[in-house]
Amino acid sequence: MTSDLADRLVEQIARIIDPEAWAYFDGTPAGQRNTTDLLRYEAWQHSSLRKARKILSLDALRSEGWRPIESAPDDEPWLLLLTGPNAVPFVGCRNTDEPGWTTFNRYYETDTGQEYVPKFWRPLPPPPSSQERG
Length: 134
Description:
By secondary structure, the protein is of the alpha+beta class. The protein is built from four helices and six strands, in the order αααββββββα.
């Protein structure tokens, strides 16, 4: 999808989400817009654009097989986990000592010590066949 086409799709979704945010600019001639309203409606438009981008990101994740973390199976030892649409996937499992997720017998943390909280999961892909390994 071209960038221009993607931008138009995001705007169309944003207009559906918050039509009033767009009505001001569509119905008020530029010379009649006051600064207070202009700033308020611009902020509202940007908010609706962010919501639309998030909807498209979540739809893309679902189409790639990612599922909400709440639906992760309890009996699957290892899963591919993801913290958000632009994050790097990692392999992890449920923590057996307390609620949460671990990877390779430790908490999966950022370099600042913050714990990554996965929001999506999917099964691990099958291992390569002996022919694929060479």
